[in-house]
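Chapter summary example: a protein plus magnesium ion.
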Amino acid sequence: MLDQAEGYTTADGRKIGPVVMEMKNITLRFGGVEAIKDISFDIRQGEIRAIIGPNGAGKSSMLNVISGFYVPQDGQVFYQGALRPPMKPFQVARQGIARTFQNIALFEGMTVLDNVMTGRLTHMETGLFWQSMWKGKAEAEETANREVAERIIDFLEIQAIRKTPVARLPYGLKKRVELARALAAEPSLLLLDEPMAGMNVEEKEDMSRFILDVNDEFGTTIALIEHDMGVVMDLSDRVVVMDYGKKIGDGTPDEVRGNQAVIDAYLGVAHD
Ligand SMILES: Nc1ncnc2c1ncn2[C@@H]1O[C@H](COP(=O)(O)OP(=O)(O)O)[C@@H](O)[C@H]1O
Ligand SMILES: [Mg+2]
């Protein structure tokens, strides 16, 4: 099914392309704690790739390596065919990678629209110097950025709250605003750390639909961490399973579901 060079076609007929991100033998330590132990996996163009595993497995750490927030002690990250040297998160963002956080990180006092506009920061070229010298360029840029932000707000169906301060929103909507901000960066790779954690069933269904729509409409490659096995099975094309910093499974949802090491890890959690 998997043609390493070219990609593959999903059961629902979507075309998955070549590898865009390759993690090779990644090891990450915090003092004596090995959060990631010699893990390799790849992410393909257009894919929805899930990272799952019990609490403390190292999932968020892995997403933080992909986003450049952590630099691993060992291993290499290849992005779009090239070895990526250690980079600052803003440099990684400029390469087209955007993310949301496990714990919502929005500006609570600012409106939804202004929060989404902050997602455009990596695209703003006009510095203060040009803003003072050439007002027209700054204004044109502001207008273009606002148009992108408004388009994303429409897409995620949050027009009605665009002027509402984020602090007043219920949890599920805050998660959607965070997704909107990440999308405003027009990423080619979108990283979502537990986008559905703490949501009720209806909110989870909405978020699942938006994730699928983003992938479908913009062709965005998505790597997401999720706890709910049902959601993972419905959403993702391929799944990496982590446990105690190790990779214990990698494959389609069906392959992973039948993997004994995965079953054991999950039963361990379920019967805690
Ligand atoms: N900044 C940090 N400093 C020290 N230890 C950390 C840090 N971040 C994560 N860890 C440790 O690394 C391990 C993996 O954590 P994490 O990646 O958050 O797991 P997950 O997201 O799968 O729950 C845990 O043992 C955690 O305590
Ligand atoms: Mg986590």
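Key point: The mean pLDDT is 90.
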